[in-house]
Design brief:
The chain has 733 residues and is α+β, with helices and mostly antiparallel strands. The chain is 65% helix and 9% strand. It contains 29 helices and 16 strands. Strands 2, 3, 4, 5 and 6 form a 5-stranded antiparallel beta sheet that branches. β13 and β14 form a beta hairpin. The longest helix is centred in the C-terminal third of the chain and has 35 residues.
């Protein structure tokens, strides 16, 4: 390490020039990275719902759903608005029924709009803006205090991006913390500038990957920054120790790199190892997050060992001239209490692990994030939560039609849309006449001719599609139809057939049919779970394995098994990898046992508390917290342990606790506060519900882990002193 440190110090100008060039190249590379906003693409290949979704897209194309609610419109006005929206380009259908309370009540009207293009496509985004413009042209307000038109659904959430503002707010909090805690007004800008270069390198090399997820894109840069900030703070503190001891700048930096090299390397290694464990997940989002963040932290480590020393040396005089006071609690009372209670604190550490395990066992996991815009909340308040299940069934199958008939009668089904229940449903002559606007007696006669043409005694009901298809193709050449339908009505029939044919193409294609089940409940509610299970049972009984199901309730039902495996695997891998790194760093078995038990207990407690409060934790958040908190917050435990062992070289146990507190607190309070504040701000302000849930869970976990380290680790190490500190390195007992 010393030879490397002296080379960095000697060639520092070349180091700065090299990283300046790399930063410029990386800034360009960021523009080339592909961002994948479709979270469904990260579902495991083994999940049948993903295969069904892909097959439906292949057969019918991608669509997205938009909910539009207007206030104060009469039923006639609502009908006119529905027709105007239906006529827009890239709008495939609008469902509205003024006689149904699912669509109209208490002065509100709800339209379910189907858009061409997937939820995250440009086509859907364009269609969304067209609908928004149409509402304004209709005289409705979509913004402001007088708003009376509301747009909700995943497609709105996908196009509601406040990422720049959210990151800017998080960075403002980060800068404030650094300015308060640093001992120079210049230090924060040195840290942010150098780690900013590492962030550029991390994000700029993402173009080498096929794509990165929207979640990774949203939080990757901030997480890389906050996860690696403690490396910069640690190096600066070690450098300041040497400068205050009277060493020259160059020699101080060499000694700082040598003194802190092992602790910084161990800290970064645990973080990288924890992140890389995410790659083992069957859910693709794990590899996406893990690779990008691990790569970023690795770049941060390189920058801290190369660019940061060069910049610190260049700014040494400025740092000294801009010195200021910073909070440096001595922690004497806490240190004394830790020594006095060292044996009970070991018991408390074990209790933390055990209680956390017990609480985590009752943790609920969710696999769906409800769109959370203000418009979504307003729509849900008036019309309740809704979700959908899509079915893929054989076409022209009597068993499939029978299954749909059975499903239509199940409890929990608000609406069933399929070919057999819409344009393929049998209609009486009277109903047929009403649907086409024709004379009922004329349709009765046409039914008789239809029966003769089909060589049956009579027909009481014919589907709309079959009837129109027969009229359009047989009327010109069938003498029996001569004079039965006038030219104007025939034109009407031809137009209706074109409309109905377009509708059929959206429901039947390539030998399969699509059906959509609407459920008036949230995707992971008991109602949705029961309905999903009942639908699956009917299809299994009627069709065996010849069907497919997809949709949020289906994904939630199928995801538990692979997720449980993923969580167990990631937990085992992170514990094993970090245990090994800590054991090799400290050449001790007691240290990794204590540190891993402490952090794993904090992680379990984080998940368990959420469950104890009656809330489910989003599945991505559960695994990310396991990997990131185990890899990142154990850095603080490693730092304290390193400082404690260093203090024990010439001090007794009690004084070493206090000295380790004093040397560790600056990093704890600064880096820990940054990690907590940044994730909390992102969680509270992000418009993306997935990002919000992941960051809020990280914020809670960070707070619990830091408190656990501060209150349990010092006394526990003191109680285990004979196993933690080698005899050859120990001072007084």
């Amino acid at each position: 390490m010393e030879a490397f440190a002296r080379a960095v110090v000697r060639y520092r100008r070349a180091v700065v020039a090299l990283f300046a060039a790399l930063a410029l190249a990386s800034a360009y590379g960021m523009t080339l990275a592909q961002v994948n906003r479709d979270m469904s693409s990260y579902l495991p290949d083994s999940m049948p719902s993903r295969a069904t979704l892909t097959a439906l897209f292949d057969a019918f194309g991608e669509t997205s759903e938009l909910s539009v609610m207007v206030e104060g419109a009469s039923d006639d006005e609502a009908l006119r608005l529905a027709e105007r929206i239906r006529s827009l380009g890239d709008v495939s259908d609008v469902v509205y029924d003024g006689a149904d309370t699912r669509y109209r009540k208490d002065g509100f009207s709800l339209f379910e709009v189907s858009l061409e293009g997937g939820t995250y496509s440009q086509k859907a985004a364009t269609a969304l803006e067209s609908v928004r413009d149409e509402l304004r042209d209709f005289g409705l307000e979509t913004d402001g205090a007088s708003k009376n038109a509301f747009l909700g659904g995943a497609v709105v959430q996908a196009n509601s991006d406040n990422l720049s503002a959210t990151i800017a707010l998080a960075m403002a909090f980060l800068l404030i913390i650094l300015l308060v805690m640093s001992r120079s007004w210049v230090e924060p800008f040195v840290f942010l500038g150098t780690i900013g270069v590492a962030v550029l390198l991390g994000m700029g090399t993402n173009f080498l990957l096929p794509s990165i997820s929207q979640l990774t894109f949203s939080i990757g840069a901030v997480l890389q920054l906050v996860l690696s900030m403690d490396y910069s703070i640690m190096l600066m503190n070690f450098y300041r120790e040497q400068r205050e001891a009277g060493k020259e700048p160059d020699e101080s930096m060499v000694r700082a790199l040598k003194r802190g090299g092992s602790a910084i390397c161990a800290s970064s290694a645990t973080t990288v190892a924890g992140l890389l464990c995410l790659v083992a997940m069957s859910f693709g989002i794990g590899a996406d997050l893990g690779i990008v963040l691990a790569k970023g932290v690795a770049f941060s480590l390189i920058v801290v060992f190369t660019l940061l020393p060069a910049v610190i040396l260049a700014c040494d005089k400025v740092i000294l001239r801009t010195a200021k006071k910073a909070p440096r609690p001595q922690m004497k009372g806490l240190a004394s209490a830790q020594f006095s209670l060292r044996k009970p604190l070991v018991v408390a550490l074990v209790a933390l692990f055990a209680v956390g395990m017990a609480l985590k066992a009752g943790m609920g996991v969710s696999f769906y994030t409800q769109p959370s815009t203000e418009d979504d909340k307003a729509i849900a308040q008036e019309f309740g939560d809704r979700t959908r299940i899509a079915l893929m069934l054989p076409a022209d199958s009597d068993e499939a039609d029978a299954a749909l008939a059975d499903i239509g009668s199940l409890d929990g089904i608000a609406r069933l849309t399929s070919y057999a229940t819409t344009i393929g449903a049998p209609l009486s002559a009277e109903a047929q006449a009403a649907s086409l606007g024709l004379d009922a007696e004329a349709v009765e006669r046409l039914y008789a001719i239809y029966a003769a043409d089909k060589q049956v005694d009579s027909v009481e009901a014919v589907s709309l599609y079959d009837f129109l298809d027969w009229l359009a193709h047989d009327a010109p050449s069938n003498p029996a139809l001569a004079g039965q339908i006038d030219p104007a009505s025939f034109q009407q029939v031809s137009q209706a057939l074109r409309t109905v044919q377009a509708a059929k193409d959206k429901l039947v294609a390539n030998g399969v049919q699509r059906a959509v089940i609407d459920i008036d409940a949230s995707a992971e509610s008991d109602t949705a779970r029961r309905t999903e299970a009942a639908v699956r049972s009917v299809l299994q009984d009627r069709l065996g394995g010849s069907f497919g199901m997809t949709g949020d309730p289906v994904v939630a039902a199928e995801a538990h098994a692979p997720f449980d495996r993923d969580l167990s695997l990631v937990t085992a891998l992170t514990i094993a990898a970090i245990f090994l790194i800590v054991a090799l760093t400290f050449r001790s078995i007691a240290v990794p046992i204590a540190l891993v038990a402490l952090i794993q207990g904090s992680i379990n407690l984080t998940s368990g508390i959420t469950g104890a409060l009656g809330h489910d934790t989003f599945y991505i958040a559960v695994v990310v917290v396991q990997a990131i908190l185990m890899g990142a917050t154990i850095d603080y435990a490693i730092l304290y342990t390193e400082n404690y062992r260093h203090a024990r070289k010439d001090g007794d146990v009690a004084s070493s606790i206090a000295r380790a507190y004093r040397t560790s607190i600056p990093t704890f309070t600064t880096s820990g506060s940054i990690l907590f504040a940044a994730t909390l701000v992102l969680g509270l302000t992000s418009s993306d519900p997935t990002t919000a849930q992941v960051c809020l869970t990280l914020a809670r976990g960070t707070a619990i882990a830091i408190v656990s380290i501060l209150l349990l680790l010092p006394g526990s190490l003191a109680a285990l002193d004979r196993f933690v500190v080698p005899k050859s390195a120990a001072g007084k007992a």
